[in-house]
Design brief:
79% helix; mainly alpha; single chain
């Protein structure tokens, strides 16, 4: 059993209001992670294509937008 499956199993024992809050928080985190991953892939392609000269600026921008 994965840690996620175990967490879901344990969360099902909690009151519904708390389960909803946990679900909202988890979905928010997942969407933020996926968006950051996509932005990093775009940034790497731009760096490889020579469209961006300063990788540090790209990373600083991503950190500012995603709080990473």
């Amino acid at each position: 059993m994965s840690k996620l499956e175990l967490a879901v199993q344990e969360a099902e024992k909690l009151p519904e209001e708390l389960r909803e809050k946990l679900g909202d928080d988890l979905l928010h985190y997942i969407h933020k992670y996926l968006a950051l991953r996509d932005e990093i892939e775009i940034g790497l392609r731009e760096l490889d294509a020579g469209e961006v000269e300063d990788g540090e600026t790209v990373l600083a921008d991503l950190k500012a937008r995603y709080g990473a």
